[in-house]
Design brief:
mainly beta, four-stranded antiparallel beta sheet, 1 helix, 10 strands, elongated
């Protein structure tokens, strides 16, 4: 967990219940329960393995257009740090408390990042990559329907 004006904390969360009404609930590496207020938290990394805390210092922006389908977004946080990420096409997947993104150079040390809305002062949509699963079949269905309604030049 990254906090404003403090050292990052290595902790474990339950992905289904870490978000409470006004705070995050974590268990530190020492085994103690920690409740962090939303206004204190900058970002929360979900990872399989621990590594040095370099989310905002190393590979925090995409160097070129990402290949992962979604909304390529740049977040500017209260302390001026910036972080790029891929958001889901489905707006219903966005929790009210924040945004779950796939960061640049995602790997076992940072697979997903949760950024709290209170930490964000600005967002910039950099691009739409791919298309959602719903848009593809609907678009193809509309195209077939339009083609079926066309008159043929070379009558049969």
């Amino acid at each position: 967990m990254y906090r404003f004006d403090r050292q990052p904390i290595e902790a474990v969360v339950n992905p289904q219940s870490f978000l409470l009404h006004d705070r995050l609930e974590l268990i530190t590496a020492a085994g103690s329960l920690l409740c962090a207020e939303f206004h204190e938290v900058k970002a929360l990394c979900f990872a399989s393995e621990t590594s040095k805390p370099d989310l905002f210092t190393s590979h925090n922006l995409f160097e070129r257009r990402p290949k992962i389908p979604g909304l390529w977004t740049r977040f500017t946080l209260r302390d001026g740090d910036q972080l790029d990420g891929i958001l889901s096409h489905n707006l219903m997947d966005w929790p009210a408390a924040g945004f779950s993104i796939t960061p640049p150079k995602a790997g076992i040390t940072r697979q997903r990042v949760f950024i709290l809305r209170e930490a964000v002062i600005g967002t910039e949509l950099r691009g739409v990559v791919g298309r959602s699963a719903i848009a593809g079949p609907e678009r193809a269905k509309r195209q077939r329907t339009a083609d079926e309604g066309q008159l043929s030049i070379f009558g049969s």
